[in-house]
Specification:
The structure is a homodimer of 82-residue chains. Chain A has helices at residues 16-29, 58-67, and strands spanning 2-8, 36-43, 48-55, 74-77, 80-81. By secondary structure, chain A is α+β, with helices and mostly antiparallel strands. The first copy, chain A, has a single domain, classed as ORF SCO4226, nickel-binding ferredoxin-like monomer (Alpha-Beta Plaits), CATH 3.30.70.3090. Chain A has a four-stranded antiparallel beta sheet with strand order 2-3-1-4. Chain A binds chain B through residues 3, 5, 14-16, 19-20, 23, 39-46, 48, 50, 52, 76-82, and chain B through 3, 5, 14-16, 19-20, 23, 39-46, 48, 50, 52, 76-82. β5 of chain A pairs antiparallel with β2 (36-43) of chain B, so a sheet runs across the interface.
Chain lengths: 82, 82
């Protein structure tokens, strides 16, 4: 398992409810790919969403987000954490 | 207080020790700006570092990182969290 930070752009105006529903859609299927989404943070003004997850690889993160209907624009392994 | 995600680019090859030293440099002065840096995540391959903080405003985050010697390239308020 490794840790990943993925980024979604173009989410200007995202609401708290939309963020929660998107997260729940990920969580509902994440076990099929061995992924655990831990947190998401959204900046509605700039339209950026950051998601932190544990996953076997970046493709597993990519597949969950894609199948849940909100493909990620960037997926970064973040092996270093403070 | 608000929550912020800031991003540093151009950090290709950053090591665990460098990330820790940078974080400690922030933490050493953060109280002067009322900022609390909570976590940082680094992708050494793509050279991206994400920092999560609580702060009175984005300028306070900007000042701490700048004074600590590693100015942020982006600072996003992230009022929505899951």
């Amino acid at each position: 398992m490794a840790r990943f930070m993925d980024v979604h752009h173009g989410m200007v105006g995202i609401t708290d409810q939309q963020l929660r529903e998107a997260h729940e859609a990920d969580v509902a299927i994440q076990h099929e790919e061995g992924v655990t989404f831990e947190h998401a943070w959204a900046d509605p003004a700039d339209g950026v969403v950051y998601c932190l997850s544990d996953a076997p690889d970046a493709d597993a993160v990519r597949r969950v987000h894609q199948r849940a209907g909100h493909p990620a624009d960037e997926i970064h392994p973040v092996p270093l954490t403070v």
